[in-house]
Amino acid sequence: xxxxxxxxxxxxxxxxxxxxxxxxxxxxxxxxxxxxxxxxxxxxxxxxxxxxxxxxxxxxxxxxxxxxxxxxxxxxxxxxxxxxxxxxxxxxxxxxxxxxxxxxxxxxxxxxxxxxxxxxxxxxxxxxxxxxxxxxxxxxxxxxxxxxxxxxxxxxxxxxxxxxxxxxxxxxxxxxxxxxxxxxxxxxxxxx
Length: 192
Description:
Layout: H1 3-35, E1 37-45, E2 56-61, E3 65-66, E4 84-91, E5 97-104, E6 116-122, E7 133-136, E8 141-143, H2 149-157, E9 162-168, E10 174-181, E11 184-188
Antiparallel strand pairs: 1-2, 1-9, 2-8, 3-7, 4-5, 4-6, 6-7, 9-10, 10-11
């Protein structure tokens, strides 16, 4: 008889904890989208003919392969898969942001306060410093809503330049904020 109130209390606490975690995840993403620094990256769909695999588009960015010359001299010997990498982005003359520097594990102390750093992880073990680091930033998939997907696919097949607007938090975490093609915003993520 005494076990029943404990089970009910435990169930209520479990639901409350799970709800709090879910709320935190949603609020954290919304904070990045609302307050993060916006950058525009030129992207290439990896397979434009199989665009809607699972209702998402796999994206590839120029900043996904970080050349060794962007790292400080002596900063790297090799990378294990899962090594945290910070890549500094600067806006180019064409309006697209490009990688200009890279650091392992932490943003350099001498970095200007207004510098934009995006955080990623290496995907493969790299045993040679002659090869670029393959980095994933958590923005490699764009989930297209069913209503917009056919138009996005049509435009990609016709060769329209695809641009991704990314919001980047101060700590380097990134979220896709919008998708543009040929300068026209096709889809904008909702905060909630």
